[in-house]
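As a warm-up, study this chain.
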Amino acid sequence: MLNLNGIARIIKMRTSFLSPYPKELKNLLETAILKRLQKEKRGQGYGIDYKPFLTVRDVPSKGRVHRRPALTHNRIVHLLSDLELAVFLLFDWSESVTDIREQFPLNPEATINISKRLGIKHPAYKGILQVMTTDFLIDMEIDGLLVSHAVSVKYADHLEDERTLEKQEIERRFWEKEEVAWYGFTEQDVPVTSVKNIRWLAPHMHSYDLEVSERMSIFERIAKVLDGNSEERLPVPLRELDEKYAQAPGAHLQYFRHLAAQHAFLWDIHGTLHSKLKAKDIELSEHWLNREANYVHAK
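Now compare it with the structure written out below.
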């Protein structure tokens, strides 16, 4: 059971300046930004109802931007770089993560006060104060407790810039006061093999919506052919099934990816890249073997 005190603290922190809407902010921000916060309810909501303060249309990006559905809450998330995508994939895949909010706005009154105390210029554009954001606010359930983590995503070479470090310090101190753990993430922290495997699996989580008898039949036939071809690369025994069951080429590989995304087939995704998988590397889920799996139906 979740700790209710922890939930109350997190909700209080999230809504401390967005709801109810304080009049003091009118003296700090321009009308367009106020509209984004107030009328469009940017940075508010939870799960599928959350609206990021910044979207891919709001800011110019030096790299590629991404809009993609999240497994965690089935909402389209807005990611402003390839690095943000990589970090998002890691959290979205984790079963302990219960919510992900990207481009989360920070209380401008608080960040302005922090910048004054530190003697650091607050972010502004053409003299107009801007609302600072954290790339990700992650909710996780750990040992029955709901905890939040704030995550800042920056390429390593950007951290060589003094101004970037100043803004990072304002952000870090904001979350320190909120008693929320804050982490910096660079491309050097990204487990490349893990991300490649997740990118290979995640799009297939909902590629089928199989009833019990069909999914168990497919699971059992794949399990049997893998057991009989332990030294073969994964595609080889799956091609045998395509031929045996008169399926189109690649059909059973797609089934495998779907069921592996559903945690029916397991392997060390942090250590072995999917393209190098052999049948012997793959384990069968005990939950699936015992017919106790929690199959996630397409929404």
